[in-house]
Design a protein that fits this description.
With 106 residues, the protein is mainly beta. Helices cover 11% and strands 44% of the residues. The chain is built from one helix and nine strands. A hairpin with a 2-residue loop joins strand 3 and strand 4.
Protein backbone atom coordinates (compact mmCIF):
# COMPACT_ATOMS: atom_id res chain seq x y z
CA UNK A 1 0.00 0.00 0.00
CA UNK A 2 1.43 3.38 -0.95
CA UNK A 3 0.47 6.78 0.37
CA UNK A 4 1.04 10.17 -1.10
CA UNK A 5 2.31 12.89 1.19
CA UNK A 6 -0.89 14.85 0.55
CA UNK A 7 -3.03 11.90 1.65
CA UNK A 8 -1.12 11.81 4.95
CA UNK A 9 -1.69 15.55 5.42
CA UNK A 10 -5.40 15.10 4.67
CA UNK A 11 -5.65 12.24 7.16
CA UNK A 12 -3.99 14.33 9.87
CA UNK A 13 -6.34 17.24 9.16
CA UNK A 14 -9.36 14.92 9.34
CA UNK A 15 -8.12 13.36 12.59
CA UNK A 16 -6.97 16.45 14.50
CA UNK A 17 -8.95 19.17 12.76
CA UNK A 18 -12.30 20.54 13.80
CA UNK A 19 -15.15 21.61 11.57
CA UNK A 20 -15.13 25.38 11.12
CA UNK A 21 -17.00 27.70 8.82
CA UNK A 22 -14.68 29.61 6.49
CA UNK A 23 -15.79 32.79 4.74
CA UNK A 24 -13.71 34.67 2.18
CA UNK A 25 -15.02 37.97 0.90
CA UNK A 26 -18.37 37.68 -0.83
CA UNK A 27 -17.99 33.95 -1.55
CA UNK A 28 -20.41 31.56 0.16
CA UNK A 29 -19.29 30.27 3.56
CA UNK A 30 -18.04 26.68 3.53
CA UNK A 31 -17.38 24.09 6.23
CA UNK A 32 -13.78 22.90 6.31
CA UNK A 33 -11.41 21.11 8.68
CA UNK A 34 -8.87 23.26 10.51
CA UNK A 35 -6.42 22.59 13.31
CA UNK A 36 -6.81 25.30 15.94
CA UNK A 37 -3.81 26.34 18.02
CA UNK A 38 -4.49 28.67 20.93
CA UNK A 39 -1.94 31.32 21.79
CA UNK A 40 0.84 29.70 23.79
CA UNK A 41 1.86 32.93 25.46
CA UNK A 42 0.65 36.45 25.81
CA UNK A 43 2.62 38.81 23.67
CA UNK A 44 3.04 40.15 20.22
CA UNK A 45 4.16 38.91 16.84
CA UNK A 46 5.31 40.94 13.88
CA UNK A 47 3.79 40.13 10.52
CA UNK A 48 3.91 41.69 7.07
CA UNK A 49 0.84 43.75 7.89
CA UNK A 50 2.18 45.07 11.20
CA UNK A 51 2.16 44.13 14.87
CA UNK A 52 -0.25 41.43 16.00
CA UNK A 53 -1.27 40.57 19.55
CA UNK A 54 -2.55 37.27 20.94
CA UNK A 55 -1.75 35.29 17.82
CA UNK A 56 -4.04 32.31 17.23
CA UNK A 57 -3.11 29.98 14.39
CA UNK A 58 -5.43 27.90 12.25
CA UNK A 59 -3.80 25.23 10.08
CA UNK A 60 -5.73 24.54 6.88
CA UNK A 61 -4.78 22.19 4.05
CA UNK A 62 -3.77 24.02 0.86
CA UNK A 63 -6.05 21.79 -1.21
CA UNK A 64 -9.06 22.91 0.90
CA UNK A 65 -8.57 26.69 0.78
CA UNK A 66 -6.77 27.75 -2.37
CA UNK A 67 -6.17 31.45 -1.70
CA UNK A 68 -6.72 32.65 1.88
CA UNK A 69 -6.26 36.36 2.55
CA UNK A 70 -6.34 39.02 5.22
CA UNK A 71 -9.91 39.65 6.33
CA UNK A 72 -11.20 36.10 5.79
CA UNK A 73 -13.35 34.89 8.68
CA UNK A 74 -13.33 31.63 10.61
CA UNK A 75 -16.24 30.60 12.83
CA UNK A 76 -15.75 27.77 15.34
CA UNK A 77 -18.54 25.48 16.53
CA UNK A 78 -18.50 27.15 19.96
CA UNK A 79 -19.52 30.42 18.28
CA UNK A 80 -16.14 32.15 18.56
CA UNK A 81 -15.22 34.17 15.47
CA UNK A 82 -11.77 34.95 14.13
CA UNK A 83 -10.41 37.15 11.37
CA UNK A 84 -7.22 36.38 9.41
CA UNK A 85 -4.99 39.30 10.34
CA UNK A 86 -1.76 38.82 8.40
CA UNK A 87 -0.68 37.39 5.05
CA UNK A 88 -1.19 33.62 5.17
CA UNK A 89 1.99 31.56 4.92
CA UNK A 90 2.61 27.91 4.07
CA UNK A 91 4.42 25.37 6.19
CA UNK A 92 7.84 24.13 5.10
CA UNK A 93 6.34 21.36 2.96
CA UNK A 94 3.93 23.78 1.28
CA UNK A 95 0.87 21.66 2.10
CA UNK A 96 -0.65 23.60 5.03
CA UNK A 97 -1.71 27.24 5.27
CA UNK A 98 -0.81 28.87 8.58
CA UNK A 99 -3.49 31.48 9.25
CA UNK A 100 -2.77 33.99 12.00
CA UNK A 101 -6.13 35.07 13.29
CA UNK A 102 -7.52 37.45 15.91
CA UNK A 103 -10.77 37.07 17.84
CA UNK A 104 -13.58 39.10 16.34
CA UNK A 105 -16.60 40.30 18.29
CA UNK A 106 -20.05 39.06 17.40
Amino acid sequence: MTFSFQSVVDTLQDTFGEDVTYRSGHLPATTIKAVYRQPVQEGFAIASSGVISNVTVFEVAVDVVANPKIGDEILRADGSRFCVQSEPTRDEAGTIWLLDAAPRGA
